[in-house]
Amino acid sequence: MQKLYIYNTLTREKTIFEPAHTPHVGMYVCGPTVYGDPHLGHARPAITFDLLFRYLNHIGYKVRYVRNITDVGHLENDADEGEDKIAKKARLDKLEPMEVVQYYTNRYHKAMDSLNVLPPSIEPRASGHIIEQIESIKQILDNGYAYESNGSVYFDVQKYNQDFDYGILSHRNIEEMLNTTRDLDGQNEKRSKVDFALWKKASPEHIMRWPSPWSDGFPGWHIECSTMSIKYLGQEFDIHGGGLDLMFPHHECEIAQNTAIEKHRVVKYWMHNNMLTVGGQKMGKSLGNFITLEEFFTGSHKLLTQAYTAMTIRFFILQAHYRSTVDFSNEALQASEKGLSRLLDAYAKIDKISPAASSSADIKGLRQKCYDAMNDDLNSAIVISHLFEAATTINSAADAKATLTQDDIDELKAVFDLFLFSILGIQDQTKGGNSGNYESFSKAIDLLLDIRAKAKANKDWATSDQIRDELAKAGFEIKDGKDGSEWKLK
Predict the structure, then answer these.
(1) Is-above-0.85 flag for pTM?
(2) Could you tell me which residues are beta bridge partners of residue 65?
(3) What is the CATH number of the domain that holds 95?
(4) Model confidence over 121-180: pLDDT tens digits?
(5) Residue 199 — φ and ψ, nearest 5°?
(6) Helices 438-457 and 461-473, interaxial angle, to 10°?
């Protein structure tokens, strides 16, 4: 089994991955709050942890991957006061909250399918685990780390900090938080302004509510993930992931809740992908730089000069290491589009290379170089750089400027199949991708090119030109060579 090193945000160091129960791995990733169309910010964590899921499975682990859907309790500004994000959308659109949830969950799944993100093993919804969340809150109360106030229940951060360490993930301390946390409406219910809600008593106008021992109300945002992760992965599990913006307060609060329930640390490795920015600014609706995935796929946003395929978006994200910031621009996406096309074009040429008795290129270490990059904290950027080097070798051999043995050709094909398509999850959409049956599709295009070749042989230039021009209008690029014509989708 490959030795994988991952960066643990909790310890701030890169360490060898050692699961608690080899070969089984438990992995929990915070999924979306489903009150709007999925956007580029949703794509990065989904693709990052899809990469990890694929690689862990490949190197021999049995992974239970849990990714939740937040459909209740996530209030505006990530605070303990204000309106529920789902309920607000339901009120504005005059819909039932679960109509909103179902609609945007379907949209999220459709976008993930387009990006070739594998479905998780389990995808629990917060609203389906209210009873379990109430039991978690009871346990925290019984253990002395929470208190009831006017029908709401709050986590007692200062009491917890006396016994454990609140701020262990984000490296913040209580004194700094007390000095910097702003006062909010309803603050007088809390013993301290750093305390956070486990259960909120619903106001009369609040749509989403459930009965509890304390009030008719709803769970806090943070308790959902603690409850669902422990339910499905146990009292100790391996990996908890999400975007860097969730580190504080969400994941910090999760660690406190988990420890308050179990009396020990539950998660071994915390992993966070970095942010996506637009022109150096965080993506946000108020800044006018918020772009949904559907707008990328159609090119309909004012900041876009063209439409981009889902695979271009996926490749764009994977070209950077998951812990680095990625800044969106049209130029960057166009470069990714060209880079992906170069790799796919090279792959298409592999089977057309005539093997030689000896090789002028050394590719024996290519596979291990790609493994080494993946084992070094999932460095997809380095994997892609090795594939580009391999593409140069393929192009040289295809142009008869270099020679490759049959073993070399087989190895190049195997490495592309494994790393580009299986582990990085790229689909060759010029060969069908999500578009249907490529074999039938390809045969139809080849038949047209055969008819065109016969027309050219008969000097029927009108038919030859018509086929070429109509295929070009349909989005195909035709390249005539001495050995016949080749095609690809533009």
Answers:
(1) yes
(2) 27
(3) 3.40.50.620
(4) 999 999 999 999 999 999 999 999 999 999 999 999 999 999 999 999 999 988 778 766
(5) -145, 135
(6) 150
